[in-house]
Design a protein that fits this description.
CATH architecture of the largest domain: 3-Layer(aba) Sandwich
Structural class: alpha/beta
Number of domains: 2
Shape: globular
Order of helices and strands: EHEEHEHEHEHHEEHHEH
Distance between the termini: 50 Å
Number of helices: 9
Helix content: 25-40%
Length: about 300
């Protein structure tokens, strides 16, 4: 049997639905999904199988106008992921259309990935009428030479299988890049940290959007088949610690419970999760934190 394998970069504005699409394609939760922008920091790769093809998805951070070092490193990572891929899929939201951010991405595609085949996926099609969808499709294709256009709903699954089958047919012929049972090339420690960070983001809403990071400090396999995981949540200021702990520790307990339950479902075994909160005022400027997130500290330079 002749096999195929290749890298597909999902790019788009924050919240366009890249993580939801990746998780649906892979069939497991490998990228955190929240309603906050910029939740995907590292270039998470999800591995999907379709027939004799292995599609390796690069879920890049959302492309936006960077302001701080972390923002700049995330945007550099996104374009780096796109430039290294065999195929790029640009995801836009049907109801938002051609925003300033989409305009900027189109300009950068011409400059930074002039020879890459780019497919267009218009997401959240259930939010607009068919005439508006047709008009948006025509306008986008008049702006850029997309090799193919797909109309999808990542959340509901509409059109996703068509996109997956097409990607499987156009990636290069060659041996598979990962073992058949591997769905992500991120170490489990980082996936576990991402799950806790997602729960924090959902729970805290606007209070602490990007001022925190989560690290898995220890991962201990136990004789009874369970796993003991210790994680540290780093916050930038003393005041943030109180917000995170909540009244009588209610917030941190709720986050710990939600994260543990999801980890147990993901790993298929018991999890003993212990969370600690530490203040580390300069974590946004520490090179080590960036490498742990799969980002390049130097890319964040002004």
């Amino acid at each position: 049997m002749s096999t195929r394998a290749g890298f597909v970069a999902l790019i788009g504005e924050p919240n366009a639905g890249k993580s939801t699409l990746l998780n649906r394609m892979v069939g497991a939760k490998v990228s955190i999904v929240t309603h906050k922008v910029q939740t995907t920091r590292a270039r998470i790769r999800g591995v999907a199988l379709e027939g004799d093809a292995q599609i390796v998805f690069v879920d890049t951070p959302g492309l936006f106008k960077p302001r701080r070092r972390l923002d700049r490193a995330m945007v550099a990572a996104a374009w780096g992921g796109a430039a290294d891929a065999d195929i790029i899929v640009l995801l836009i939201e049907a109801h938002r259309g051609i925003t300033e951010g989409v305009e900027r991405i189109l300009e950068n595609l011409v400059e930074l990935a002039p020879n890459q085949p780019v497919a267009l996926a218009i997401n959240k099609i259930d939010r607009v009428k068919s005439e508006a969808l047709l008009s948006l499709t025509e306008r986008m294709n008049s702006r850029y030479g997309f090799v193919k256009t797909f109309l999808i709903s990542a959340e509901r699954g509409h059109g996703v299988q068509d996109l997956k089958e097409w990607l499987a047919s156009v990636i290069p012929a060659g041996p598979w890049l990962y073992p058949e049972d591997q769905i992500a090339d991120l170490p489990m420690r980082m996936i576990a940290a991402e799950m806790t960070r997602e729960k924090l983001t959902l729970r805290l809403h606007q209070e602490l959007p990007y001022q925190l990071t989560v690290e898995t400090e220890t991962w201990e396999e136990r004789k009874d088949g369970s796993v003991r995981i210790e994680q540290v949540i780093y916050v930038a200021r003393d005041g943030h610690k109180g917000i995170l702990l909540g009244k009588r520790g209610e917030t941190i307990q709720a986050v710990s419970k939600a994260s543990r339950e999801e980890l147990e479902e993901f790993l298929g075994r018991r999890v003993h999760l212990f969370l600690q909160v530490k203040v580390r005022s300069g974590w946004l400027e520490e090179a080590e934190r960036y490498s742990e997130m799969g980002l390049d500290f130097k890319d964040g330079g002004a």
